[in-house]
Design goal:
The protein is an alpha+beta fold and 354 residues long. The protein contains ten helices and eleven strands. The protein has two domains: 198 residues, no CATH class; 109 residues, no CATH class. The strands form three sheets. Strands 4-3-5-6-10-11 form a six-stranded antiparallel β-sheet. A three-stranded antiparallel β-sheet has the order 8-7-9, with no helix packed on it. About 5% of the residues have low confidence.
């Protein structure tokens, strides 16, 4: 039925992705021996939302839901799946959840961070339609080439280590800018022209004296490293007005992570260790659903001296007044990143109060 949950704006599409905390790297005794490399991955983002999505801020200006829907149709280049406001939340997550993909990160930078660069207002014109998916992918491959080169030249072999190093990030920014300027200079001299570069020049000044290029490259690289599910939800709620009780999932994170958020709308999450179940809903009573059913992943089969000392069910009510985000992360080998034990759940809290 039209307008029912979960909502998906963009249909499944395959992109080149670098896997952060990949299963290949996690299974390696020495993660530094595993070089990050891109691979083709199918991408879909899903949202369940109770509340009203009324406005979203881009470049300091708020746009109503109708304008945001038109904006998403142009930038994502897919038809509007439904007229309900919750679909636009899913569309915004398509734009924001880009970690690991340079093509999607470049799209995010162009559509969100470069608003009004060179005087182009993508809310008022159809200039953004000049960009095709293949253009973003071509630009993304240029970023990929420089990242692969940086990995080869350095002793650091993980994306997480590169991401956490300002020096590595700065070097990657410099290398990408030099590469883009070199290609632009070649185009100006009549060498083989890149259609992707020509379209990029409609939005980003490739003059070394201007700030557009630095903003574009920095925004793309920052999004590539930072815009995971948790950070994307934070960006969304910091710029959105309305009431939100949200659950967001992505095919990129579904093996281990889901994000919940509340702002102006109640949201409860209940944990049932003995059943291996997590329930959520905008009504407290709703999280009791399904408790009469047997589930195979209960904690009693994994019980040890260090795990599940407390098997009592617990309910967490999010702060809907100030705004709160919860990321539930169940890493297969969390000892690589966190201090909790396998088969347990890590909760990350982020405040989004104004």
């Amino acid at each position: 039925m039209d307008g029912t949950h979960p909502h998906r704006f963009s249909p499944r599409k395959v992109y080149n992705f670098y896997p952060f905390q990949s299963s290949e790297a996690l299974s390696s005794p020495d993660r530094s021996t595993v070089k990050p490399k891109s691979q083709l991955v199918g991408v879909e983002n899903y949202v369940t939302h109770n509340g009203d999505f009324e406005f979203y801020k881009v470049s300091g200006r708020y746009y109503d839901t109708g304008s945001i829907q038109k904006f998403l149709v142009k930038t994502l280049q897919v038809p509007l799946p439904s007229t309900v406001d919750s679909v636009a939340v899913a569309g915004m997550m398509d734009l924001l959840r880009v970690q690991g993909s340079f093509a999607l990160s470049a799209r995010y930078a162009i559509c969100v961070k470069m608003e009004n660069a060179k005087g182009v207002d993508i809310f008022e014109t159809d200039t953004i339609l000049l960009f095709k998916p293949e253009h973003y992918e071509t630009i993304g491959k240029l970023f990929e080439k420089q990242l692969d080169k940086l990995v080869e030249e350095s002793e650091t072999k993980t994306l997480e280590a590169i991401s956490s190093s300002p020096a590595f990030r700065s070097k990657l920014v410099f290398n990408v800018k030099e590469s883009l300027l070199s290609l632009s200079e070649g185009n100006n001299k009549g060498h083989r022209s890149s259609s992707a570069l020509s379209v990029l020049a409609e939005f980003v000044s490739l003059d070394v004296e201007d700030t557009d290029l630095s903003l574009f490259v920095n925004s793309t690289i920052d999004a590539f490293f930072d815009n995971d599910l948790l950070h994307s939800m934070r960006i969304f709620l910091e710029n959105a007005k309305g009431s939100f009780g949200i659950c967001v999932t992505s095919t990129l994170d579904a093996h281990r992570q889901v994000v919940f958020a509340a702002k102006g709308q109640t949201m409860s999450i209940a944990f049932y260790p003995r059943k291996g179940m997590v329930c959520y809903g905008s009504e407290q009573a709703a999280v009791k659903a399904g408790l009469n059913y047997n589930t195979p992943a209960g904690s009693s089969k994994f019980k040890t001296d260090r795990f599940c000392a407390d098997e009592d069910a617990v309910r967490l009510d999010l702060d809907d007044l100030g705004g709160e985000i919860v990321s539930i992360d169940a890493a297969q080998n969390p000892a690589e990143y966190f201090t909790y034990q396998p088969h347990s759940v890590l909760l990350l809290f982020v405040s989004v109060s104004d």
